[in-house]
Amino acid sequence: MIDLMFFLAIGAIGWGLSLALYRPVAERAGWPLGEAQERLPTLTLLIALSSIAAGVAFALVRGPMDGGVVILIFGVGLAIFWSGFLRVASQTSLFFAPLAALLLAGAWAGAIPGVS
Question: 59-104 pLDDT, tens per residue?
């Protein structure tokens, strides 16, 4: 059995952290900023924070003994891998973070059939 909400929460946290931290890391490392990061930094930060909040909220509700701590640890690990390994391509987090958060919210609300 695959726990889709578990993986979506990890994705929301990891890609959200990657998106939130991309601008300061890119400026320090000399990587180029994407158009959204350059022109709308506040909006990208709000997208990142809302994605992180969705993942963390799910992890908290899930509880530490049912995978909540693992979600947080793997989310941070995904952010480190995504930003460190992909570097400039980690700007794809602008697409993946809100997508994971929206799918998590939909699954959590029961709007996606077959996912609980």
Answer: 999 998 988 999 999 999 999 998 888 876 677 888 999 999 999 9
Q: Which value, in Å, is the radius of gyration of the alpha carbons in the chain?
A: 14
CA distances from 12 to 46, 49, 90 (A): 13, 10, 14
3-state secondary structure of 68: helix
Residue in this structure with the two tokens 């509880």, named with its chain if needed: 63
Contact predicate 18/93, CB 8 Å: yes
Task: Give, rounded to a whole angstrom, the gap between the first and last alpha carbons of the chain.
Answer: 11
- At which residue do the structure tokens 């930094």 appear? 41
Measured between alpha carbons, how far is 62 from 87 in angstroms, rounded to an integer? 31
Which residues lie below 8 Å from residue 91, measured CB to CB, with a gap of 6+?
19, 22, 34, 36, 37
HEC sequence for 15-61: HHHHHHHHHHHHHHHCCCCCHHHHHCHHHHHHHHHHHHHHHHHHHHH
pTM, two decimal places:
0.89
